[in-house]
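Chapter summary example.
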Amino acid sequence: MNGWRLLLTRPAEECAALAATLAVQGIHSASLPLLAIEALAETPQQRATMLELDRYAAVVVVSKPAARLGLALLRRYWPQAPAGQAWFSVGGATGAILADYGLDASWPVAGDDSEALLALPGLAQALSAPHPRVLILRGEGGRELIADTLRARGAQVDSLELYRRHLPDYLPGTLLKTLRSERLNAVVVSSGQGLQSLRELAGADWGGMLELPLFVPSPRVAEMAKALGANRIVDCRGAGAAALLAALRESPGPAS
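The structure predicted for these 256 residues follows.
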């Protein structure tokens, strides 16, 4: 497709799935995972929260790792999910994991970010009862936009941190070596933290990468990339494979 040769930077399992989808379309890719997922040990707080899951009007799941780890806890403590509970996700890929489990899950069709989720009419409807409670399944750190916004709307919000992300150990120069050896002409990042890891790994080589097309999932990450000096930023308006493929089709081919 227009000669694209992409560097994929998602966690390893997600890189493999995306690479397979791209290969079907004739797009070459190489993977250099910049986020490793480490599940957190179960704590008494996790157990207590899951045992009282039915007190929440809605559960918000911010990522695929949060969905997988959250469902593992749900299977352990709730043979059948609480009736009438609404589940929401940031992005369709995460939502599909919840829906495949049989949950009443909703997610924004346009945009895989917190802002799009918060604009969902279904979320407002789920929180229309007096004194609603919301549980957010997430990783350590990250944005507080969802929690802060829902609290401002009158909800009581609890967060359950299930994992942490970290940059895998790579030798200095690994990024540039991969780009050159695979003759790659663009980079794909799926989150703001992934972009930060890319910048960290690049180190002194970052200046030489600023003209490479950089495919990002949202306007927020596009602004982050711009602040870091990237000159050719493509906002895919989504983190999934379909959004990336659409952006690749609409973008001019890479410079020869």
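To summarize the output: The radius of gyration is 19 Å.
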